[in-house]
């Protein structure tokens, strides 16, 4: 009987998580609150800067002189520091999906503060994103035991990850030098694509740097290794690139749409990079992997719903006003409107 009891699997998700994973979970949750709020504060700053200078969306940098934008930037930095610490304790598959909470916060604040209305299907899209994220979190693997930053460097130098990094850098350069000049102002995926591609590399470097600092604070100095400083240089370069193109996306497109799409692309590419570099799925059963994939499908469904219905609020309001006008004229002419709500032309939804 005692033997059978010792073989009983954990009865709750907390019993199946290590203390490091729980620390990473708490840090990631707090990070999402700060980052979600920072989107709205920065957007307000960008709007104020655009009123007196050149908009960021067309290449201007007047927002650098706007105090409100810096408040948003500081808020985001606080969130990123918490996120940075989370990656030092938990795997990317656990930490990254929790960014879904920042979607809900930024969408709610955008609705209240920026008056950027979110349709009911947009709300459903946010819910789907969160459900998919929770599914992934509950089946996340334990953190890999790493004893030196040199070990992380060896993982980064393996052929599979080098191939991934080369593809990411090539795709980012193509987007920056070919697609952004032509489609940056009309296609939301161009700016967000650069942020997400570069972001997946920055997270791997952030995780390596976080591990190095954690080991250093525990008594094993990692600052003497050149690999630590190489990862630091990659982090700085990637974050500056992300900040630049995320500002352009926020200034050009609706915040309630930028946040979830950026989240899904960034999360998907980051987890892919983590699976390749840290081999997270090697420590999981096929059932866990399949469940995580189902979580991805749920997140992608929510994002697709958000993207396809982003103009529906305006469409419905236009249709309702047209119906009211038509009904009024019909009543005046003694006629009955039997068509209902008129359909907008497909071109107006694009």
Automatic annotation (TrEMBL):
One Gene Ontology cellular component: plasma membrane
A biological process term (GO) from this entry: magnesium ion transport
Location (main, coarse): membrane
Transmembrane segments: 22-41, 62-82, 88-114, 121-141, 161-181, 188-212, 224-245, 257-277
Membrane topology term: Multi-pass membrane protein
GO terms assigned for molecular function: magnesium ion transmembrane transporter activity
Entry-linked Pfam families: Mg_trans_NIPA (PF05653)
UniProt-listed InterPro entries: EmrE-like (IPR037185), Mg_trans_NIPA (IPR008521)
Location of the protein in the cell: Cell membrane; Early endosome
Coiled-coil zones: none
Record's keyword terms, sorted: Cell membrane, Endosome, Ion transport, Magnesium, Membrane, Transmembrane, Transmembrane helix, Transport
Signal peptide per UniProt: none
Complex and partners: Homodimer.
Main function: Acts as a Mg(2+) transporter. Can also transport other divalent cations such as Fe(2+), Sr(2+), Ba(2+), Mn(2+) and Co(2+) but to a much less extent than Mg(2+).
Record family assignment: Belongs to the NIPA (TC 2.A.7) family.
Listed name of the protein: Probable magnesium transporter
């Amino acid at each position: 009987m005692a033997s059978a009891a010792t073989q009983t699997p954990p009865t709750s998700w907390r019993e199946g998580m290590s203390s490091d994973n729980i620390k990473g979970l708490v840090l990631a949750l707090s990070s999402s609150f700060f980052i979600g709020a920072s989107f709205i504060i920065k957007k307000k700053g960008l709007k104020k800067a655009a009123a007196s200078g050149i908009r960021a969306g067309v290449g201007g940098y007047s927002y650098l002189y706007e105090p409100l934008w810096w408040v948003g930037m500081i808020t985001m930095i606080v969130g990123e520091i918490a996120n940075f610490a989370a990656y030092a304790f938990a795997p990317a598959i656990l930490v990254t999906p929790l960014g879904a909470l920042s979607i809900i916060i930024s969408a709610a604040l955008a609705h209240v503060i920026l008056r950027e209305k979110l349709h009911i299907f947009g709300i459903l899209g946010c819910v789907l994103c969160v459900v998919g994220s929770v599914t992934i979190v509950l089946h996340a693997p334990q953190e890999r035991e790493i004893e030196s930053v040199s070990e992380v460097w060896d993982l980064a130098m393996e052929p599979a990850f080098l191939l991934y990094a080369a593809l990411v850098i090539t795709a980012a350069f193509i987007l920056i030098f070919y697609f952004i000049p032509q489609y940056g102002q009309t296609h939301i995926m161009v700016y967000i694509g650069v942020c997400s591609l570069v972001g997946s590399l920055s997270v791997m470097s952030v995780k390596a740097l976080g591990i190095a600092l954690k080991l250093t604070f525990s008594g094993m100095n990692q600052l003497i290794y050149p690999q630590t400083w190489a990862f630091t240089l990659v982090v700085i370069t990637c974050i500056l690139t992300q900040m630049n193109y995320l500002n352009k996306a926020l200034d050009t497109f609706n915040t309630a749409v930028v946040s979830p799409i950026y989240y899904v692309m960034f999360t998907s590419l980051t987890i892919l990079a983590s699976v390749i570099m840290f081999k997270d799925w090697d420590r999981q059963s096929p059932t866990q992997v399949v469940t995580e994939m189902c979580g991805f499908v749920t997140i992608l469904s929510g994002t697709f719903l958000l993207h396809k219905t982003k103009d529906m609020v305006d469409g419905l309001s236009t249709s309702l006003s047209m119906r009211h006008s038509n009904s009024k004229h019909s009543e005046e002419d003694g006629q009955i409107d039997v068509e209902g709500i008129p359909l907008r032309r497909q071109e107006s939804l694009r």
